[in-house]
Amino acid sequence: MPRHAFAAGLVMLLACAATGQEMKFFYPAPPAAAVETLKDQPYGVLQMDVYRPPNAAGKSLPALIFSNLASGAQRSNAFYKAWAEIAASKGLIAILPDLREESVAQDLAALLTHLAANGPSLGIDRDRIAVYAGSGNAYRTLPLVQDPKLTAIKAAVIYYGGGQVTTFRRDLPVLLVRAGLDRPPVNRTITELATLAQTQNAPVTLLNYPGGHFRTGG
Q: What is the CA 186 to chain-centroid distance, rounded?
């Protein structure tokens, strides 16, 4: 699958909305038989939960890492668990890792090193690893995935958020998703990032959802 199509396709698995403080899914939950869950899998000194299609062992499937550092977005959160289950039901291997605020760059690097060594045993194609981040996690994650040394990351999806980036990778397809009715400063940041990426001829795509509202959480 072309990398641009891989990045763009991921957003279809992340359809959600919120009303007030309530996080509510508008995407049907998959049947339990469509997902296999591996809980508390170690990587380095940390752990992750892995959601995958049944009988994924021995296969070579794309993986989606949820960069879920912000409060309310940890791997124990039912909202993120639901996203991971949907991704797995669509043929992806979804990873909810423990990431620590004080060492998020090192923790992400450790996770990628672990997947490089052990991904095939989980059914992961090491050449199709993507990262998703939203809201406050986008601010932390977008600069990290633009590190040219992190070539294990092949695509990224950034939901309604931005980050401090001056130079975009030319080898990393990124899908920026903008909620049209979000807070003006957030949308200005996203638009500025998309413009900067365009001037650098980087493979960044901006997707605008005109009716999308601001929501809390990561």
A: 19
